[in-house]
Amino acid sequence: MNTINNADNILELPLPPLLAVPLPTNRPRLEIEIGDVVCAGQTIAVSDAGADVLSPVTGIVGVPVIRRLASPIHETALCLPLTTENVRKLPPAVVVLSPDIQVTLKKAGVVGLGGGAFPAWRKYRPQIKQLIINAVESDTHICCDRALLAVHRQTLAVTVARIAYALSVPAAIIALRHDAPDISPVEGVNICRIPTGYALGNERLLVRHLLDTVIPSHETLADHGIMCFNIGTALAIDDALTNSKPMLGRVLTVRRPDGDVINLRVPFGVSIRDVATFANVRTAMAHIGGRDARAAMPADAVIHAKTNIINFCQTAQDTPLPCIRCGDCLPVCPENLSPLHLYADWRDGDFARMEKRQLDACLLCRRCDDVCPSNISLTNAFATAQHHVAVAREKNVQTKQWQTRYERHQQRLDVPRQFAGVNAAARAAQAMNRVAKAKRATATTHK
């Protein structure tokens, strides 16, 4: 493999004999049963908050298992095994279009491919006035978006115009790196180039740069009439709305130990071992991350929407040193946070204090990583902390819901108890009245 020749190409991963499709963490409801034969694109699980989970291939459903997910954050998920060998091929399912755009995107399983896997249907609002397509991939180790841009540069602007029309959005912008390949322009779609070093195309920073609009951490872009999608997500949205095709996989970057780079289109649920076999890598131990490849993954880790790179490096990059509290990270934070103190709280495991220091406002832009003389992966620490806090919040919400249901249940049980004595007395009085009436009737008969 040649790094230059393959960096802008997209290859197809041959279908492996077994996949493990991750299920939603928020109370998923299975639409199939163990032993069923499902076709590609068929709905296998749904949840209220996320996108529907679709089968990426034709296969036989197995017993759910817990697997590690291939992402920088230590995540596990319940996965549904699909066996593809010796299975009669079925016609792929199509997305049933609905007048409600949110319903269509949810049933198509479209989620963000920029690293967050946020459901696309939850970003859409009828009052959206601005659509931004984020093709700013400033991590030079990750080139899957650049490959998509190279493949679709003649039609991307037309695609974006078509999406804007379908979503009834009056204005659209495509944001590119300054050195990205030229794309064919289309009337109504503005093409903007972002300077080198821009913070990984973070959508809040992107909006600030393009529209001079500040989005507070507790608000969403939709609150300000803005919708932002990664280039891969935008292409999936167009496939769903135009071609009735669901999202069944993604394109990711694969870096071999010898430095060669390929971009690979894979179905969701394949393992790192499958990718290693295709890339002719002997060891299936991989690291997730571009510039900072320290998150080691086992061979059976499952690829999902958040996986944008698999780095088959033999060892992690430079070993981090202890924090020397130099303060170099303070002036570079675009949100005026204190990475130095946040990292100290992270080492102490004090997530509550990190929340007080506005952990949610961290953009995970890696600017603090770039200037740290100790080579500390501050961003990975903050991303893990944000995930921990989000999971804790979700558990608290569920706990409060269960507590409310329990209290209401107890109230329903207490009502009969309060009136139990009254009801018994009333029944006794009625019985005495019946006896008295019977006695009077008997006495009258004898007379």
TrEMBL record:
Keyword presence, Membrane: no
Keywords, alphabetical: 4Fe-4S, Iron, Iron-sulfur, Metal-binding
Segments forming domain 4Fe-4S ferredoxin-type: 313-343, 352-381
PROSITE patterns according to UniProt: 4FE4S_FER_1, 4FE4S_FER_2
Protein name: 4Fe-4S dicluster domain-containing protein
Organism listed in the record: Candidatus Doriopsillibacter californiensis
